């Protein structure tokens, strides 16, 4: 038990919680190495790795050459030798050069060696829009990662989860693609860095708000949108439940389906494109498992099926509260039939 | 001749203060002629014991290649990319390393893995098709055979770097073909290695072709070893059919890496005598006369000539080597003819440390299908969709 002051919850940003997670992991385990472009002296372009090079030295928090395949490829070799690399990809769309390594090696090394060579690599990817980024700075690439067996794919929506999930990702013996919703980097919550609250493990969804009339299934940057929509819907008599998936792989069918069976209606909400996007998979799973409980088809509210738009137009693309509410209104299926 | 020697000010703006001209890259440049030992004065200095060891390994390797190719005809191997003609590189690669070092082979380098001590049947698992990697990479310090070209090179750099950080004097040797040097991962690996001064050696086996494409369509560089200069590491050219030369050059590069001197790029000039794989028709892209010319420069023949000339090899020794190789082949044949026992449930075993709910359901589905197949009935499909 440390002093009461040290335990006091103070407003902290998600970026700070992520930084703290890496710092604590590095302090506990000398095998943890942070690497990427500008992660050292600068502390990353989002300052998520701020201070780590200073505290742990450049061998533990390394500014690499500017080459994503090289960063992830060398991380594979480092993991083979017993290290636990935490790799930062500077932006979602700049992770693509590393896909070859991710898909051909990182995701399947355990499998192709029959378990003899697991790769405990965490790949941190700032993702998603809403920060006014120019082209190639706002992609939601989760569907690509989800489609690759052997990877865990997680994304926090709260400050607590940012810390807890990243600690778990780093401790995991499997590779984890850790998607950081960059527009939530500066979101704040009261949080005690010296006594962080325990969070549900990777693979567990969490009900962020209970309700009886429909379930909003969402994750990452769309969680606050859905929470706001749920508040707004109250006025119209809708009592919405919000499920934050937190982990796209593994997928928590149990929590999601328990919720949908209770409410009988569901909308999946995410920023990435709808066609071929995560929502299709989620809607199909829910339909397969909860068909007899459903009062209406599972709907999707997603980004348009377009390359991510320029910043001055992104507000038209990103699913906001109104689009979520429109979908909720469409859940009155019986009235239409 | 080099850019630095030209009168720079005439066409270059005044460089910013941080800019310093690089010193002469000559120490990094490869000699224009591939280094040779056999048939030269240097051969006198070669250790007879090493030469005899290399000879035995080459003969065994040649027989191994022939046997593996034969196994494809019997349907025992799905495919085999032979290293016939390249045995000197394969064997020297294995022998240049200490036990604690790591080898990062490509799909063509099963022989290097075998020469390093890996069970031949385990080395062939990928090509046989019963699993991907048939061995625990940590056991012999041999990374899984890599099929996507050049992607294993950054792994070698990362491992060597990690070992160096831990204070272990471990060296990684990464093997790649001439075609693989065009891949982006080749560039990134060499660049990382040089910047980190990682204890890694890159061995390019330039066997003339990437499937059907000749080197001239792969690169415009004077040689592949020249590429080293741009990264700030030495490049070395060696006669890849001269086992003594390859062993010496690789040995120097490994020693240099071990004492903290950083990476080296070695290009071994060799030739692929067989087709790309058993499934390839090499007559479509090269003539017999070219192959015949290379047969004259055969790695086993080069070594045999040297050893016989020095009275180190007599008919008995040649026969003994051949018999040992034959015994290896017979044993390999026999073991490969046994059907591997496979458990389909293994499909779900090693995807994650812990099976996900999704995989548990799918495993239950397959279990039920297998039960039904074997006539035992599919009672209690435990993992019902839930
Ligand atoms: C990334 C990638 N692209 C294409 C292939 C298909 N492929 C297999 S071998 C090969 C030629 C490789 O030539 P080289 O690197 O010279 O090696 P060699 O086969 O001659 O040993 C090609 C194109 C591959 N394995 N990986």
Topology:
The complex is a heterodimer of chains A (337) and B (386).
Chain A: H1 4-7, E1 10-13, H2 14-28, E2 32-36, H3 52-56, E3 61-63, H4 68-80, E4 84-88, H5 99-106, H6 109-112, E5 122-127, H7 142-146, E6 152-154, H8 159-171, E7 176-181, E8 188-191, E9 206-209, E10 214-218, H9 222-234, E11 240-244, E12 247-249, H10 253-263, E13 266-273, H11 278-290, E14 299-303, H12 314-317, H13 321-330, H14 333-336
Parallel strand pairs in A: 2-3, 2-4, 4-5, 5-7, 6-7, 10-11, 10-13, 13-14
Antiparallel strand pairs in A: 1-8, 6-12, 9-11
Helix pairs in contact in A: 2-8, 4-5, 9-13, 10-11
Chain B: H1 48-73, H2 87-95, E1 102-104, H3 110-115, H4 120-123, H5 125-128, H6 137-140, H7 152-166, E2 172-177, H8 184-196, E3 200-206, E4 209-210, E5 213-214, H9 227-231, E6 235-239, H10 243-258, E7 264-269, H11 288-296, H12 299-309, H13 315-337, H14 357-373
Parallel strand pairs in B: 1-2, 2-3, 3-7, 6-7
Antiparallel strand pairs in B: 4-5
Helix pairs in contact in B: 1-2, 1-12, 1-13, 2-10, 7-8
Bound molecules: thiamine diphosphate (TPP).
Q: Sum up the overall morphology of chain B in one term.
A: globular
Uncertain regions of chain A: pLDDT < 50 for 5+ in a row?
Answer: 1-5
How many structural domains in the coordinates of chain A?
2
* CATH architectural type of the largest domain in chain A: 3-Layer(aba) Sandwich
Please provide the ordered H/E string of secondary-structure elements of chain B. Answer: HHEHHHHHEHEEEHEHEHHHH
CATH superfamily of the largest domain in chain A: Thiamin diphosphate (ThDP)-binding fold, Pyr/PP domains
CATH class of the largest domain in chain A: Alpha Beta
Query: How many helices of chain A in DSSP terms?
Result: 14
User: What series of H and E elements makes up the topology of chain A?
Assistant: HEHEHEHEHHEHEHEEEEHEEHEHEHHH
What is the helical fraction of chain A, as a range of percent? 25-40%
Radius of gyration of chain A: 20 Å
Would you identify the regions of chain B where 5 or more consecutive residues have pLDDT less than 50?
Answer: 1-5, 380-386
Strand order of the largest sheet of chain A: 3-2-4-5-7-6-12
Portion in strands of chain B: 5-15%
Q: Which two chains touch over the largest interface?
A: A-B, 50 and 45 residues
Our count of helices of chain B gives 14
CATH-defined topology of the largest domain in chain B: Rossmann fold
Q: Main sheet of chain A?
A: 7 strands, mixed
- Domains counted in the coordinates of chain B: how many? 2
User: What is the CATH topology descriptor of the largest domain in chain A?
Assistant: Rossmann fold
Counting copies of identical and different chains, the oligomeric state is heterodimer
């Amino acid at each position: 038990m440390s002093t009461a002051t040290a335990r006091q919850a103070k407003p902290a940003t998600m970026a700070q919680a992520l930084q703290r997670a890496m710092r604590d992991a590095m302090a506990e385990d000398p095998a943890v190495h942070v690497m990427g472009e500008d992660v050292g002296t600068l502390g990353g372009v989002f300052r998520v790795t701020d201070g780590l090079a200073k505290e742990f030295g450049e061998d533990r928090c390394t500014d690499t050459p500017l080459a994503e395949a090289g960063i992830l490829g060398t991380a594979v070799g480092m993991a083979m030798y017993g290290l636990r690399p935490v790799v930062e990809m500077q932006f979602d769309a700049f992770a693509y050069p590393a896909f070859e390594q991710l898909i051909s090696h990182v995701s399947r090394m355990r499998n192709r060696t029959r378990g003899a060579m697991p790769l405990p690599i965490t790949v941190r990817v700032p993702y998603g829009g809403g920060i006014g980024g120019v082209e190639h700075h706002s992609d939601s690439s989760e569907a690509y990662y989800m489609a690759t067996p052997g990877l865990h794919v997680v994304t926090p929506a709260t400050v607590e989860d940012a810390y807890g999930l990243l600690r778990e990702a780093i401790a995991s013996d499997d590779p984890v693609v850790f998607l950081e919703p960059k527009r939530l980097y500066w979101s704040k919550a009261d949080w005690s860095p010296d006594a962080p609250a325990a969070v549900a493990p990777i693979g567990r969804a969490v009900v962020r708000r209970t309700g009886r009339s429909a379930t909003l299934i969402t994750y990452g940057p769309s969680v606050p949108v859905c929470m706001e929509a749920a508040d707004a819907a109250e006025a119209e008599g809708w009592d919405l439940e919000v499920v934050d998936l937190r982990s796209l792989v593994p997928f928590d069918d149990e929590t999601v389906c328990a919720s949908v069976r209770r409410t009988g209606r569901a909308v999946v909400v995410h920023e990435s494109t709808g066609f071929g996007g995560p929502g299709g998979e989620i809607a199909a799973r829910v339909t397969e498992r909860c068909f007899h409980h459903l009062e209406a088809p599972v709907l999707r509210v997603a980004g348009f099926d377009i390359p991510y738009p320029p910043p001055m137009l992104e507000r038209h693309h990103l699913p906001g509260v109104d689009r979520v509410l429109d979908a909720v209104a469409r859940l009155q299926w019986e009235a239409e039939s | 001749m080099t850019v630095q020697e030209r009168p720079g000010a005439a066409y270059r703006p005044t460089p910013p203060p941080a800019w310093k001209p690089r010193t002469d890259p000559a120490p990094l440049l490869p000699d224009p002629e591939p280094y040779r030992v056999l048939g030269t004065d240097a051969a006198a200095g070669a250790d007879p014991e090493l030469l005899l060891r290399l000879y035995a390994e080459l003969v065994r390797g040649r027989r191994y290649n022939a046997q593996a190719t034969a196994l494809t005809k019997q349907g025992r191997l799905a495919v085999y990319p032979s290293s016939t003609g390249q045995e000197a590189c394969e064997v020297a690669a294995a022998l240049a390393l200490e036990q604690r070092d790591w080898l990062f082979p490509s799909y063509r380098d099963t022989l290097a893995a075998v020469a390093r001590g890996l069970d031949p049947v385990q080395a062939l698992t990928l090509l046989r098709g019963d699993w991907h990697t048939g061995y625990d990479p940590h056991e012999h310090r041999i990374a899984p055979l890599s099929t996507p070209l050049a992607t294993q090179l950054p792994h070698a750099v990362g491992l060597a770097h990690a070992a160096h950080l831990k204070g272990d004097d471990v060296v990684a040797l990464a093997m790649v073909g001439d075609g693989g040097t065009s891949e982006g991962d080749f560039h990134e690996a060499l660049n990382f290695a040089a910047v980190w001064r990682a204890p890694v050696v890159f061995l390019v086996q330039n066997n003339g072709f990437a499937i059907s494409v000749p080197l001239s369509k792969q690169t415009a560089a004077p040689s592949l070893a020249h590429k080293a200069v741009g990264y700030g590491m030495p490049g070395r050219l060696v006669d890849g059919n001269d086992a003594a030369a390859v062993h010496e050059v690789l040995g120097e590069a490994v020693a240099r890496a071990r004492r903290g001197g950083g990476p080296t790029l070695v290009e071994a000039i060799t030739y692929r005598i067989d087709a790309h794989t058993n499934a390839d028709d090499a007559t479509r892209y090269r003539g017999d006369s070219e192959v015949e010319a290379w047969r004259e420069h055969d790695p086993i023949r080069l070594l045999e000539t040297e050893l016989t000339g020095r009275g180190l090899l007599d008919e008995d020794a040649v026969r003994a080597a051949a018999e040992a190789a034959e015994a290896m082949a017979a044993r390999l044949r026999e073991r490969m003819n046994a059907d591997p026992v496979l458990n389909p449930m293994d499909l779900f075993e090693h995807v994650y440390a812990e099976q996900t709910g999704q995989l548990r359901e799918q495993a239950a589905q397959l279990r039920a299908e297998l039960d039904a197949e074997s006539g035992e009935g599919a009672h209690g499909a435990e993992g019902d969709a839930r």
